Amino acid sequence: MGLGQFPFPPKWGACRGGGTVVPHATLCPQWPYCRKRCSYCNFNKYVVPTVDEAAVRACLVQEARTLLRLSQVQSVTSVFFGGGTPSLASPRTIAAVLEAVARAAYLPVGAEVTLEANPSSTSPARLAGFREAGINRLSIGVQSLDDAELRLLGREHTAAEARGAVEAARGLFPGRTSIDLLFGLPGQSQDAWARGLAAALRLCDDHISLYQLTLERGTALAAQVSNFARKGALSTHNLSYWRAEQYIGVGPGAHGRFVPRGEGGGSREARVQTLEPDAWMREVRSQGHGTRRRVVLSPLEQLEELLALGLRTDEGITHERWGHFSPQLSLQAVFGEPGEAQDLQQQGWLLLDGGGLRCSARGLALLDSLLPDLLCQLQRRWARQPPRVGELHRAAGPRGGARRGTGTVAGPREL
């Protein structure tokens, strides 16, 4: 099928079921295949001689439909194609997934739709095809603009190819191009890193994700991320994670957090899809999805996630967002009383005011050291309140109550 035959961009804007859309989530389709294994990456990825793209596409479409149907989600606020290397998929596959999402839920016109891409699979013609398929934001895995560093990382592109890919992307996606960089490489001096970062900012200053290289089991090298963006170029999708909003993971090894249809607002589940692509496809064909593990998160666990994620942003956690997760126990009631949070405020690491709870500029740099104290205060304060209706039966079982998707379970309540 040629590009001119695409039924896309999709006819976004039609709301499933009509009426006002309230329950919303982001969607994260995963393309698990790569051309080679990079020395730092421990993501769920597979290097295979050939890929049956039509089969993978059909399963991505089916699982997206199924999980949207089984959730309470009516509006998808952003879509992020990750991997693996999703730019190895054809524009036709991207278009098919977006069409399935647009038919199953409300996908607003102009919703952020991001594709992760490697410079080696981002020719101008291919990028134009992705844009025609519905992509409006590109995240490029540059990692370095130094050829020696790229060889160390096992990347298949050169610095010149990375520059060309970013320039082409900025022409097609102005103001909506992001690049990934790694720092802390073996033998990399602070001066070398400063020069590399300055060169990257000259190339693309819309949005940059910086990964500090760390050692991971199963890799030669690996990483952790911080995101930086110009005003107006923040990633809607990334912010949704930090705000602990619902997200639906589609594809091998994908993770998700959402409230199943038929459950109350507090019964959020953590889900993990089957890792291996062939096994995942068999499960999708047999039961409509490849959910391998699901865990019901307790209200306290949801607040712990919100605290750990929300404080990683400069806006922190607003009173409104906290109240969405904990209407009975306010942010002020938890962290406004004497305890660790007040001590951290007095030391200038933390702020609690009418805007909510957030770290100071100094506190953000030490957040991993502050979080254990804040989590302890939250847990102590939570233990002092009476249990809510419906929580007693959860407390009787093992923490999390994991279930495995064997294909024998059925119905919205089960899956």
Characterization of this structure:
- With 415 residues, this protein is α/β, with parallel strands linked by helices.
- The chain has 2 domains: 225 residues, Aldolase class I (TIM Barrel); 70 residues, no CATH class.
- Helix content is 36%, strand content 20%.
- The chain has 15 helices and 14 strands.
- The protein is globular.
- The N terminus and C terminus are likely disordered.
- This is Radical S-adenosyl methionine domain-containing protein 1, mitochondrial.
- GO terms for molecular function: 4 iron, 4 sulfur cluster binding; catalytic activity.
- It comes from Patagioenas fasciata monilis.
- One of its GO terms (biological process) is porphyrin-containing compound biosynthetic process.
Short recap of the structure:
This protein is an alpha/beta fold and 415 residues long.
| Largest beta-sheet details | 8 strands, mixed
Report the radius of gyration as a whole number of Å.
22 Å
- The overall number of domains is 2
Order of helices and strands: EHEHEHEHHEHEEHEEEHEHHHHEEHHHE
Which percent bin holds the helix content? 25-40%
Strand content range? 15-25%
Which stretches of 5+ consecutive residues score pLDDT under 50?
Answer: 1-22, 220-225, 392-415
For the record, the CATH class of the largest domain is Alpha Beta
Summarize the SSE layout with pairings.
Elements lengths: L23 E8 L21 H18 L4 E9 L7 H14 L7 E6 L6 H10 L3 E7 L3 H7 L5 H14 L4 E7 L6 H14 L3 E8 L7 E8 L6 H7 L4 E4 L4 E4 L10 E5 L3 H11 L3 E6 L2 H12 L8 H7 L5 H5 L4 H7 L3 E4 L2 E4 L1 H4 L2 H17 L8 H4 L7 E2 L11
Parallel strand pairs: 1-2, 1-8, 2-3, 3-4, 4-5, 5-6
Antiparallel strand pairs: 6-7, 9-10, 10-11, 11-14, 12-13
Helix pairs in contact: 1-2, 1-8, 2-3, 3-5, 9-14
